[in-house]
Design goal:
CATH architecture: Orthogonal Bundle
CATH topology: MetI-like fold
CATH class: Mainly Alpha
Number of strands: 0
InterPro entries: MetI-like, MetI-like_sf
CATH superfamily: MetI-like
Largest sheet: none
Radius of gyration: 20 Å
Pfam families: BPD_transp_1
Structural class: mainly alpha
Protein name: ABC transmembrane type-1 domain-containing protein
Helix content: over 70%
Number of helices: 6
Order of helices and strands: HHHHHH
GO cellular component, one term: plasma membrane
Subcellular location: Cell membrane
């Protein structure tokens, strides 16, 4: 994403659209790859079981494919969320007049190290909060999942 930023600034400009385009660009690939991989990795035996039980295609997707694909799907969403947050901060660092990235740049230019450090801490805290929200959503959507791979 960082390598394409100068070209995106030329085509899109330094405005909100640049943030939207960069976030979409950096997020799309991990989410699309994880989604296709998670659906492709569903056991063919489970899909065949749905056929044997005479499930409709919608029932097969909602009862078999989606629950089986959710763990990998959430991994892709977590990667996409991290990429989106990083992309937003990078765009604000290099091509914006507002936001936490701009605040860090402004603090650096004024030699106010404390402002830069506070902005870094806020960026980290928001990133942790976004990740925790996604973990909560993952636990809510998958009530059958009892093991906790993160040990919390």
């Amino acid at each position: 994403m960082l390598a394409w930023l100068p070209l995106l600034v030329l085509f899109v400009g330094i405005d909100e659209e640049l943030k939207y385009v960069s976030i979409a660009w950096s997020t799309a690939i991990p989410v699309i790859l994880a989604t296709t991989r998670s659906i492709a990795d569903v056991s063919p035996k489970l899909v065949e079981l749905g056929r044997v039980l005479d499930f409709t295609p919608l029932q097969r997707v909602s009862t078999i494919v989606l629950p089986a694909a959710l763990p990998s799907l959430f991994t892709g969403l977590r990667e996409g969320l991290a990429a989106a947050w990083q992309s937003l901060v990078i765009v604000e660092l290099f091509a914006s007049f507002e936001g936490l990235g701009y605040l860090m740049t402004w603090g650096r230019q004024l030699f106010q190290l404390e402002l830069v450090i506070v902005a870094m801490l806020v960026i980290a805290a928001i990133g942790l909060l976004l990740n925790a929200s996604l973990q909560y959503l993952e636990r809510f959507v998958q009530p059958w999942k009892t093991e906790d791979p993160h040990g919390s």
